[in-house]
Structure formats: structure tokens, C-alpha cells
Amino acid sequence: MNTTHIDVVGYALNAVDDLERVRYERHLRECSECREEVAEMNEVTAMLALDAPEVTPSAALRVNLLEQIQNVPQDAPQDIRATHSAQASRSSRGRRALIGLVAAAAIVVGGASVAKVAPWSNSSSSTTNAAARIAKAPDAVRKTAPFRGGTITVVMSRSMNQAVATLDKVAAAGDKTTYQGWYIKSDGPTSAGVLMPSGQSVLASKLSGASEFDITIEPAGGSAVPTNPPILAIPMA
Quick one: angle between helices 92-110 and 32-51, nearest 10? Predict the structure, then answer.
């Protein structure tokens, strides 16, 4: 058994090789704490991408963000068998700062810098606000389909390059697994992010060029590429 926490920073920035990714995703199936951090980083990245204007980042900005990430205090790797009180010793303040910086860096490294960085906010409130903005877009399109005992509604806006998925009364994906959305494009699938089995999930700002939205069941924390066939496909035309 892997007895140390993974490098969630490297994983969130996709700065790991294929062998490390396999090992990390195996660890994510066992470690709820790391799964929570990865999920929060993914959600904050989506929030920042939605709120920020797309501009070309300077090399100095990239370097500065990455240096700040390295300077955020992190606890040494812990034994998974440690007590709950020992696991709880991770600094909440430092953890939130780290997640914010990683989210910003992920956008910068991906080609769009964050011109403004808001203070940490309640994730459900941020998701609701983002979903409302997408739904109010002049070109918003809504698609609803039955899914796993409930329904899924996807609202997308091409002009915003953004979509939001709402799952209602949907059965959980299963033990140590998660639902993950994929934008299907001419060059293959692109991850849209993991989906909450109940409520709203703002999807990654990668809608451009997608003709279909698929859902697969993936290991907890999500996958870089689909590892299972889709269980639902929604046309996006």
C-alpha cells in the first residue's frame, strides 16, 4: 500500500509522467483527503477560467506563480495509517492558498492568465453564480436526458466557451469511482471535469469545437483520458 500522500500540485498541473499518473490515480482511489484536494483544485480552476478575461500571459507571470506555489508551506508526507487528528493537522489556510495558486497557475500554463484573483469563496455559491451566467447567455442551449435513475441537464454557451451539468437524483458512480464528462472533438475526447452525482458542476472552458458531451465512469479523481466506454452521449449541435 502507498503510505504517503501524492504531489497534488504536480497532478493538478498535469506535470507528471504516465507512470506517476497511474500511481497517483491508484492512490486517489484509497485517499479521500487527496481526492478532495484534487476536486477543489479542478473546481476553482473552472471558476477562474470562467471569470477571467483571456489574455496572453508573460513569462514573468508564469515564473512568479510557480514560485509562489513552491513557497506555500506544506506538511511532510503522512502515513495513511495515522490518526484522524494527525491528518487534520494540515493547515486549512495554507491548503486554500495553495489551491488558489495552483488553479491560477493551471490557467496560466494552459495559455490564459488570470487578470484578477478573487478571495476564496464558498464553492457551491460560486458554482451557482457561474451556472446562472451560462444560462443567461444569449446563445445558451439546454439539453436534458435520463441518466442512471435520474436526469442530467447540460446548459452550454458557445460564446462563453463554457457549460454546466446538473445531475438530479442520479445514482452514485460506485465505490472509489466518479462520473467524468468529456467534450468529443475531431481530434478526440477532452476532459470536461468530474461531475457531482447531485447538483451542479461547472465544466472546463474547452467547449469550442465539441460536437458531443459524453460521460464515463472513472477512478476517483478523474482520468487524463477515458478508461471506460461512455455510458451517456449528448449531442451538442
Answer: 50
> If you ran DSSP here, which 8-state letter would residue 76 be given?
P
Q: With the C-alpha atoms ordered 10, 200, 144, 147, is the resulting torsion angle positive or negative? A: positive
36 has pLDDT over 60: yes
Mean pLDDT of the chain: 72
Neighbours of 209 (CB within 10 A): 14
Q: Please give the C-alpha separations between residue 179 and each of 80, 150, 201, 216, 232, in angstroms, as whole numbers.
A: 25, 14, 11, 6, 11
Q: Report strand pairing: 177-185 vs 212-219.
A: antiparallel
Q: Is 188 exposed, middle or buried (0-12, 13-18, 19+ CB in 10 A)?
A: exposed
* Largest CA-CA distance found in the chain, in angstroms, rounded: 52
Residue with cell 457549460: 163
Judged against a pLDDT cut of 90, whether residue 236 lies above it is answered with no
The pLDDT value given to residue 221: 82
- Asked if 127 and 43 count as a contact pair (C-beta separation under 8 A), the reply is yes
Confidence tier at 105 by pLDDT (50, 70, 90): low
Q: Work out the burial of residue 15: count CB atoms within 10 Å of its CB; fewer than 13 is exposed, 13-18 middle, 19 or more buried.
A: middle
Q: CA of 61: how far to CAs of 11, 45, 58, 159, in Å?
A: 21, 17, 5, 27
CA–CA distance, 61 with 84 (Å, rounded to integer): 38
pTM as predicted: 0.54
Grid cell 506555500 is found at: 72
Write the CA distances from 155 to 18, 20, 52, integer angstroms. Answer: 33, 35, 20
Whole-angstrom Cα distance, residue 101 to residue 41? 9
